[in-house]
Amino acid sequence: MDQHSISLDRFSLRTRIPVVLITTVLALAACTAESGDASELEGVDSATAMNTSRTDTTDCEPLETRPPEAPDQQPAFEGQTRACGVSADVDLEVVVLADGLEHPWAVEPLPDGSFLVTERPGRMRVIGADGTLGEPISGLPDVDAQGQGGLLDVALAPDFESSRLIFWSYAEPREGGNGTAVARGVLSEDGRSVSDVEVIFRAMPTYDGRNHFGSRLVFDEQGLLYITTGDRSDAHMRPLAQQLDNHMGKTLRIRPDGSVPDDNPFVGEEGAMPEIFSLGHRNIQSASMDPQGRYWIVEHGTRGGDELNLVRAGRNYGWPLQAYGIEYRGVPIEGSSPQPGGFEQPVYYWDPVIAPSGMQWYTGDAFPEWRGSVFIGGLRQQRLVRLEIEGERVTGEEHLLVDREQRIRDVRQGPDGFLYVVTDEDEGELWQLRPAS
């Protein structure tokens, strides 16, 4: 057994559904190029068809017209993939507020019009409303910035204006490997340092790997913090997403001090990690609350299986037993089926993939045509994806910023109603999206 292996004997397969045998999932561990996300591995496919000005979803052409990676797979219901191409006819202006950022991972607008931005190598800084780059903030813990790891998401506490508390996720270096962690601290008034830093969550077990850290942070209306993780990518780690005695491939819910809410779905269940909110996920890098307070995520799938999911407490979303698409090396996902039964189906999936990262439900006034839409960053496809959703079904899809040919890592709505985007490049940028003047 090599250094990347762990014993699976101590993990029991425990879910709220009938157990499905998963031994077939333990195929030969794929190399990084076979099991990692398209966001880190593949170039841009420039062939994308765009249809515009269609809002009638009963009789229209889908936006995506390329051949699927898994042509024999069929959606579980109408509209689950390849939604109609739509256009809100927004006259959009893109302003580059700042550049020279090294692989920025998250942008968080501040109440005064400035921004907190993380850079994956381990820096966080305040960028002024005029684009002035602040010096890296001091006081942050060390990060393991290899592969997809590093300094990742950042979020303001709901009471930030009085507490100055910020929360951030990162790949934490540990003895024997690394893992997703979440820390919090008090941001100084001048934006140059954080104090009273404490780690409030550590995903377990520790693993010596480079990929699938998840890491999106979202607060709900009650002030509870939701955290996403990944399955750590390697094939022999995948079954952990179906087990409750670890944090791999899960969404988690905690209080801002790291304690566990009493009504979390698995609290009191023997052997279960009490922070778990949902299970059966692959690698979640997009998460957002909608205007109704519902929790949505988009997770990196395999080749042809990126998923939009509406997350409900205690539900199992199937990975690695349920999945659309194929392995990156071009073979079927062994031991998996798109519709095995007993799991939650994705609301929507992309085949081919967009490689999602960042997510924002739009509620502002600057773009009334977009109100109620959800925006998702596209890494591999180098675009901003807009979905129109009615109830729990996607009714239309639009792709924006395609001509800029940059990987969209995060998208957030500012207090001014504009959208703010960071691009995952060696020379990354912070963009402001506003109505054209």
Describe the protein in words:
The radius of gyration is 20 Å and the shape is globular. Helix content is about 5%, strand content about 35%. With about 425 residues, it is mostly beta strands. The protein has a single domain (about 25-40, about 55-435), classed as TolB, C-terminal domain (Neuraminidase, 6 Propeller), CATH 2.120.10.30. The strands form 6 sheets. A 4-stranded antiparallel beta sheet has the order 1-23-22-21, with no helix packed on it. It has 3 helices and 23 strands. Mean pLDDT is about 90; it is low at about 1-35 and about 40-55.
The profile of the biggest β sheet is:
4 strands, antiparallel
Instruction: Identify the CATH architecture.
Output: 6 Propeller
Q: Roughly how much helix do the residues carry, as a percent range?
A: under 10%
Radius of gyration: 20 Å
CATH superfamily: TolB, C-terminal domain
Sheet-strand content, in percent, reads 25-35%
Task: Compute the number of structural domains.
Answer: 1
Order of helices and strands: HHEEEEEHEEEEEEEEEEEEEEEEEE
Structural class call reads mainly beta
Cross-sheet strand order for the largest sheet:
1-23-22-21
What best-fitting shape do the alpha-carbon axes yield? globular
In whole angstroms, the N-to-C terminal distance is 62 Å
**Number of DSSP-assigned strands:** 23
Number of helices: 3
Q: Which CATH class is shown? A: Mainly Beta
Low-confidence stretches: 1-36, 38-57
What is the average per-residue confidence, as pLDDT, rounded to a whole number?
89
